[in-house]
Design goal:
Layout (H helix, E strand, L loop, with lengths): L7 H9 L4 E4 L5 H9 L3 E4 L7 E3 L5
Parallel strand pairs: 1-2
Antiparallel strand pairs: 2-3
Length: 60
């Protein structure tokens, strides 16, 4: 669970740690979503007032 912006660097650390899922309170960057999808990492953004948004990896 991250409270800061979900940046590329945080996604890269999660990929290296072989985490399947990252939950963040702040929106992910476009590049972090692209990398997460490429490497099979699911991102979930939980905004303060809106429903959660899931960014799931694309099937190959």
């Amino acid at each position: 669970m991250l409270t800061s912006r979900c940046s590329l660097e945080l996604v890269q650390k999660a990929i290296r740690a072989k985490l399947p899922l990252v939950v963040t309170l702040s929106a992910p960057t476009a590049l972090s979503v692209k990398w997460a999808s490429r490497y099979g990492l699911t991102l979930i953004h939980v905004p303060k007032y809106d429903p959660p948004r899931a960014y799931a990896p694309q099937e190959k």
